[in-house]
Specification:
Blueprint: E1 5-14, H1 54-66, E2 70-71, E3 78-81, E4 91-94, E5 101-102, E6 105-106, E7 109-118, E8 122-125, E9 137-140, E10 147-153, H2 160-176, E11 189-197, E12 203-208, H3 211-230, E13 238-243, E14 248-254, E15 264-265, H4 274-277, H5 280-285, H6 291-301, H7 306-313, H8 316-334, H9 344-363, H10 374-385, H11 391-404, H12 408-415, H13 423-436, H14 438-445, H15 449-462, H16 469-480
Parallel strand pairs: 12-13
Antiparallel strand pairs: 1-10, 1-11, 2-5, 3-4, 3-15, 5-7, 6-7, 7-10, 8-9, 11-12, 13-14
The structure holds adenosine-5'-diphosphate and magnesium ion (MG).
């Protein structure tokens, strides 16, 4: 693009605490009954006092440590005043000039700050066939007061793709840290993008409700601003909404109408010193391995390609499963005298990421709940690598394992799926196939390679799929040479 795009993100995440930010009403986003998880504090009754949810503060500190930010020596809450029906107090408790975290970095994008605030309730607009003036709007305060973490980046992002990758990586990190499920579709993670060209006035994009929309909204807005500049007009400094149906941004309000929030320190909550409440050094040491480090280690140590590593690390349960299965495979290999011929790690990757995940997806259950233990998947792969079963048998056995959780060897024996190792039986099958298919045998002798494949296939049928294709291939070659 001939203009230089500048993008900065503001990302809100609902933290996975048991109770709300300033009271002990439950933080349960699954609650269907409206206004069930409420109390005088989160309903904004006069005269009540908020108390700080320590778990929420700890989560933000954890995020700050993971992103290499500086944990504030003294942090405090402030009131951000504005009126809206989903905000019964008339102000939101947020943090203004002393956020919990300052600085940090992720994917070469500088983090400006990470702070803590409370979420608002939800408005439900009635969609009746009534004139607008007669439609009711309902308010559900179950979400009012749940802890919301806001992360603000510096305007270091240069493209829609980079913004999307940042948001995805942040989601992975938040999940690895266990602070949020950060599901955009459920509104647990909300991304706002500030977009400008050539450092001109920026548009702040709101209502982006999926990862896909993060990319599309920014890409659309960059094109729109480019069009404005090329017409010789000026880009407005404004807030724009993303219309997912029309795949367009639209003007919501200009910054001339910008709020004056009259921030002032929350008088009901004392400033606090994170280092006095938490042992920051211990917290830093106890951070889990983060996705970037895990991807590098998986690629190097576990000898995976980068896309393979990325695919596993995307889901921590999957990554842990793979790692446990790999160590089981290694343990099994050590017990053997003969070297394993095939590449069992790749087999493991394939059986895990396509077959097992496929079975889980088809059954509608989350992979997290699979009955198949990593050790048993490794065992299955070991049976394949040892030539005890072929891929068809492996798939049948895995299906059974998925249903019962049983170990593959038991299933193999019970179902008689073991590859035939009786040489006599195999040689007989080969001779029979040659006798029954003289033309194919002749063709192969004359140099037609495809005929060998056909003969192997016939022998496999005779052996009910329990033959070893490599071995059959060798036998046919021997029988038919010269
Ligand atoms: P404002 O208060 O005017 O909305 P801030 O300086 O508070 O602006 O920044 C809010 C967000 O906008 C941050 O994520 C920041 O990175 C981003 N931002 C700041 N300047 C620009 C710009 N020129 N273009 C795009 N994003 C910007
Ligand atoms: Mg701002």
């Amino acid at each position: 693009m001939k203009y230089q795009p500048t993008i900065g993100l503001e990302i809100h995440t609902i933290l996975k605490t048991r109770t709300k930010m300033f009271c002990d009403s439950l933080n349960d986003l699954e609650e269907k009954e409206p206004n069930k998880n409420t109390c005088p504090v989160c309903l904004g009754h006069p005269g009540v006092l908020p108390t700080i949810n320590k778990q929420a503060v700890e989560y933000v500190v954890r995020v700050g440590l993971a992103l290499g930010g500086k944990i504030a020596e003294v942090s405090k809450f402030d009131r951000k005043n504005y009126f809206y029906p989903d905000l019964p107090k008339g102000y939101q408790i947020s943090q203004y000039d002393q956020p919990i975290v300052l600085g940090g970095e992720l994917l070469n994008v500088r983090i400006r700050r990470v702070h803590l605030e409370e979420d608002a309730g939800r408005l439900l607009h009635e969609l009746a066939n009534e004139p607008t003036s007669q439609r009711a709007t309902y308010v559900d305060f179950n979400r009012a007061g749940v802890p919301l973490m806001e992360l603000v980046t510096e305007p270091d992002i240069r493209s829609a793709e980079q913004a999307l990758e940042f948001a995805r990586e942040l989601q992975r990190i938040l999940r690895y840290l266990g602070v949020s499920d950060a599901d955009m579709e459920k509104g647990q993670m909300r991304v706002e993008a500030n977009v400008s060209l050539d450092m001109g006035p920026k548009a702040e994009l709101k209502n982006i409700n999926s990862f896909k929309a993060v990319g599309s909204a920014i890409a659309y807005e960059l094109e729109r601003q480019k069009g404005v500049l090329e017409r010789g007009d000026k880009v407005e400094y404004e807030t724009r909404g993303w219309d997912d149906m029309k795949q367009k941004t639209f003007s919501q309000r200009s910054k001339e109408e910008a709020h004056d929030y009259r921030y002032f320190p929350e008088p009901d909550l004392p400033p606090f010193e994170p280092a006095k409440i938490f042992d920051l050094e211990t917290m830093r040491n106890e951070l889990p391995e983060l996705p970037a480090a895990k991807r590098t280690r998986f690629a190097q140590e576990l000898k995976l390609t980068e896309p393979q590593a990325a695919m596993l690390v995307d889901n921590k349960t999957l990554a842990d499963f793979f790692e446990a299965a790999v160590s089981e495979l290694a343990a099994r290999d050590e017990l053997k005298t003969s070297a394993v011929e095939k590449e069992p790690r790749n087999l493991l990757f394939n059986y895990l990421t396509s077959d097992l995940i496929g079975l889980a997806a088809a059954s509608g259950a989350a992979f997290e709940h699979t009955k198949v233990k990593p050790e048993r998947l490794a065992h299955l792969v070991d049976l394949i690598a040892d030539g005890k079963i072929g891929s068809r048998q492996a798939k049948d056995i895995l299906k059974k394992m998925f249903e019962t959780g049983e170990d593959p060897e038991t299933i193999m024996q019970a179902e008689g799926l073991e590859t035939v190792s009786d040489t006599g039986e195999i040689e007989e099958a080969v001779r029979e196939v040659i006798a029954e298919n003289p033309k194919a045998a002749e063709d192969y002798k004359k140099g037609k390679e495809a005929s060998l494949q056909f003969l192997v296939g016939q022998a496999m049928r005779k052996l009910k799929g329990r033959g070893d294709p490599e071995q059959l291939r060798d036998l046919f070659k021997q029988e038919l040479k010269g």
